[in-house]
Amino acid sequence: MEAAEQFLKQHSITMVELATPDMTGAIRGKRIPVQTFLTNGLSDAVGMSSAVLAWDYRMDVIETDDYSWANGYPDIFLRPDVETLRLVPWKARTALVFCDVVDGAGRLVAAAPREVLRRAVAELEQAGLSPYIAMETEFYALDGESLRSRTDRNPVYSLHDNAYLEPFLDEVCTTLLSADVEVEACGAEYAPGQVEINLTPSDPVTAADGLLFFRYAVKQLAQRHGYRATFMAKPFGDLSGSGLHIHQSMWRTDRDNAFWDANARGLSDIGRNYVAGLLRYAAELHLVAVPTPNGYKRVMDHSFAPTNLSWGWDNRCVAVRVLAHNAHGARVESRVAAADANPYLLAAAQLSSGLAGVTEDLKPAPPAADAYVSQEYSPLPTNIWQAATLFGESEFARRALGAATVENLCRVAWSEAAASQREVSEWERSRYLDSV
User: Fold this and answer.
1) Could you give the dihedral angle defined by the CA atoms of residues 410, 357, 248 and 312, in that order, rounded to the nearest 10 degrees?
2) For labelling, which of 100, 163, 167, 312 has a CA lying 20 to 30 Å from the CA of 117?
């Protein structure tokens, strides 16, 4: 606390944002004066309605086993994790701290996303493995009025086609660095106006906090530059979807990468077990990776989004891409998730799956040669109904994420699926209004 007080004084902070993820992966919280933070904010005194853990993407509340109309959605409370205190550089004299969520008795709420991820990390550490992950995500920066890109050229890897976005992206990267979120790379992606930014590896909770803060910064700074930024999985039917890829490695010590076999100069047996675990449970946990009906429109053959439970060596068409060129960089990349996934729950699901592969000594099938053509790999769920059914019936999901988390996500999924089913699109009117 002494260091926190010095930080706040050094930067003349007058307002502190208490932040936490909701179940959809959106940043929520409250803004309080710095003096209130120092006197009350650290004692579980700042409350929010528990509806924050029980609503869908339109903030329509759902009923869960713990929070419902029957008990009036009682308060939950924000407990600051003071080590996460950081500047909000685009706001004057403002700092942000990520918070854990506790109930009225001061007990950590088991279904809160940060706590779900912490439990997954603890299980790996009990097995003697320290996980490090890096998140890379894609998003669109659209014109604020037309909601389309300002150009129509595919800018992928170009250093000039997205030049008009550079003032915005430069401010994003500078802002993140000022807030202790390191950017490893930033580049044009596979569609006009699409960008990918890679964050540096860290422990999983820090990585998820970093991604949530990154989304916060991107969406706020985009407005200042006349853009609307979106992490929607598939905003346009004729353009590339946006994914959230997680690079994962396991370490026994700072210099001993458990995924590297020094004798074979490649992926270790533990690494292969981990890959097999990711694949074994990917279908059951797919709702966590693709939580909205829109996300399933991103997945199609020859789209660089995986369609089945395949893996391969440095292969961008599979569910799990393995990169094992040296001891420092040996890792696996899960490519199944959409950009709108909750990073905490996604990381927890994948870490738990990988650990299960290690503890169960699972072995992966042969690597894919052409994942989109091969018939030997089981398909991933193709719609949210199928994904929610598998997830709701999964005993592994309940063990890995907790029964309350599974029930909450399923209820949100049913709500989103029903809303999608009711919607009649302009495409449908154009196609059928006069033809039937």
Assistant:
1) -100
2) 312
**CA pair distance 327, 249, nearest whole angstrom:** 11
Cβ contacts of 186 within 8 Å, gap of 6 or more? 169, 172, 173, 195, 196, 197, 198
Query: Would you mind telling me the total number of residues written for the chain in this entry?
Result: 436
Q: What is the pLDDT of residue 45?
A: 77
Cβ pair 340, 114 in contact under 8 A: no
Answer yes or no: pTM beyond 0.90. yes
CB of 99 closer than 8 Å to CB of 80: yes
For the residues 103-107, what does the mean pLDDT come to?
Answer: 90
- As a whole number of angstroms, the distance between CA 16 and CA 33 comes to 6
H or E, element range at 367: none
| Extended beta strands in 144-180, E state | none
Burial 269-293 (b: 16+ CB within 10 A, else e): ebbbbbbbbbbbbbbbbbbbbbbbb
d(C-alpha 44, C-alpha 23), whole Å: 20
Which H helix or E strand runs over 61?
Answer: none
CA angle 19, 22, 25 (to 5 degrees): 100
Enter the DSSP assignment of 41: I
Please provide the DSSP assignment of 204-266 as one string. Answer: HHHHHHHHHHHHHHHHHHHHHTTEEEE--S-S-TTS---EEEEEEEEEEETTEETTEETTTTE
213 phi/psi in degrees, rounded to 5: -65, -40
User: Is residue 43 predicted with pLDDT exceeding 80?
Assistant: no
Question: How many Cα atoms occupy the beta-carbon half-sphere of 156 within 13 Å?
Answer: 7
Through-space distance between the first and last CA atoms of the chain, rounded to whole angstroms: 69
**HSE toward the beta carbon, residue 132, CA cutoff 13 A:** 19
pLDDT at 152: 85
Report how many helices (DSSP H) and strands (DSSP E) the chain contains, helices first: 12, 17
Residue 190: exposure state from Cβ atoms within 10 A (0-12, 13-18, ≥19): middle
DSSP string spanning 185-207?
EEEE-SSTTEEEEEEPPB-HHHH
Give Rg (Cα) of the chain: 22
Q: With 70 as the cut, is the pLDDT of residue 41 above it?
A: no
The CA-based angle 399-405-411, given to 5 degrees, is 130
CA atoms of 162 and 194, how far apart (whole Å): 9
Q: Residue 329 has what DSSP assignment?
A: T
Return the bridge partners of 138, or none. 196
